[in-house]
């Protein structure tokens, strides 16, 4: 590269530096002009417009304290019908959702073999009965012969023993008849409780073994909630306490009552199971998830809606209206519960009657002016 080229490159660099300096100076001057213009323009005060329904007064309220609970609904009475005899399953017609009555015949196991066993046991009992008759006649004959002195008493004792053995054999045969009849009766499967079929685990024509599950029946007239409580929460729970539940898929609240508390904690988790009876189980199903609040007591305190307490600062606070401006008041929260069907929390640090802004409005800048809208004309 020649000296001439180096000279042109140096000239270009100098020109770029001069252009950069000029642009920087113009930018600084423009920023200074904007700052002066902004300083000369008066600031517009922001105004927050609120409706009467956007605020609530902090008042002393009766707080119904409660314990949050959840769990699945479970039928108090349920049964699994099992096969008590092995064989081919016949006559199973009920399916999931069918209503059955207590004692209703659900299905049968092929009884051909069991009928034969009953007949065999009955014939063996008849044969044993015939042996008793033979032994009895022998005893009668030997008694007559002993009385006449033709035979010794030892022969009579032997015949008496034979008679006793024949009688014992007959009793054993009668017991075998009862066992055979019991096995025959076991071929008929009946519903032990009234309810609704929840599962059908076998199909007609299948060969079932002893204790094989055939159907499951649940009684939906009585449902209960099995709630898991921590060790600390279980201390305040008592039999008879009421709870209000919200069932999955149902819009109506359901009332429940504690009827039993497990006396032992669960191994590992150390939790305690409490069982709540559902007052009205109409339309509910086993296995539905339920959650709600168990009433454990009440307290009277200065309270605000729980949603009004904000936690986006290091300490909780509420937004209040003071002197027609927004103010942030730090509070100390206490007991939580329901008051007039609203979730509230007891607070310290507010004066009674303070106008609290509801939490649905979100965070507002502290010091903003507040203007209330006029109510609509009737």
From TrEMBL:
GO MF terms, alphabetically ordered: efflux transmembrane transporter activity
Keywords, ordered alphabetically: Coiled coil
Coiled-coil portions: 111-145
Superkingdom of the source species: Bacteria
Gene Ontology CC terms, in alphabetical order: efflux pump complex
InterPro entries: RND_pump_MFP
NCBIfam families linked: RND_mfp
Similarity section: Belongs to the membrane fusion protein (MFP) (TC 8.A.1) family.
Protein name: Efflux RND transporter periplasmic adaptor subunit
Organism annotation: Caenimonas aquaedulcis
